Each structure stands twice: as structure tokens, then as C-alpha cells.
Prior knowledge:
flat
Amino acid sequence: MTADRVCGLxxxxxxxxxxxxxxxxxxxxxxTGDPGPQLVPLILGGAxxxxxxxxxxxxxxxxxxxxxxxxxQAKSDGNLGTPNEIVAPxxxxxxxxxxxxxxxxxxxxxxxxxxLASFLFLAGSILLLGTFAxxxxxxxxxxxxxxxxLLGYALNGLLGLSVPGVWWS
Length: 169
């Protein structure tokens, strides 16, 4: 629980810094009704501050009597996998591959455009963090394509931003 409080405090501080930093952004056309480039950092910084504060101040969840008994039984048996599944972190090669994917995404974004670079990054990340069954791969690729298309439509079509390389606007 201490890690949650520390992370929440860090996110809260970063959110406040983002809000304060976004206030220094100069608006392009003051008085035209256009919110300008300050809007997105203000919203994200405010959300980050709020969520960080909630994470830092939340109470630990209470265990039900059944879960408490199961945890006690598992501790006495030496089998901690019974009531709560302990999830191992991804293998080292997967973590390295995720880092390479992130660097590749940043490096190819201008050349491939938003949709293709984002699809490759998202699909690669989803595939690296899961299993490699054929049905799972097809489903994950479809989800990645859908997320990229919807995000591209939201950025270009709904918000009117000019993001290069969007498949559908």
C-alpha cells in the first residue's frame, strides 16, 4: 500500500506541474473562442492530479471473511497461489522488445504516419504481453486496428486536429 501512496503523490505532483506549465502556453488567437493549445494539458494535468490524489488517499480494501480464511489457509499450507493468483512480470526479452517498440514508434511516427505507426506499436505491444495462439493473435490485431481507427477519427474528425497519416477521418 505504501507504493500506491508514493506513486499517487508523484502523479499528483506531476499533474500540478503540468497544469502550471500549461498556463504558460501562449494562445494563438485570443478572443476568438478557440480554447487554444492550453486545453489538453490542462485537462490531462487536472485528471492526473485528481487521480494521483485519489490513489494516495484511498483506504486499503477490506477482505471478505472467505478471502481472509483462504489467505490464512494458503499461508499455513505454503501455497499462496490459491486465493490470489500471483502474476509474474513479463520475461526480460519481452520487456526489452517493448522498449525497442517504443523507440521504433517514436522514430517512425513522422515517416509512417499516425495510423500505421500506432497500429504497429499497439499490435506489437499487445502481442508481446499475451499468448501466441492463432485465434488470440487475430483478435488482438483486430482490437489494435479498431483502437487506432477510432482514435484517429476522434483526433481528426471530432477534434479537428491535423494528425498526419490518419486512415479514417
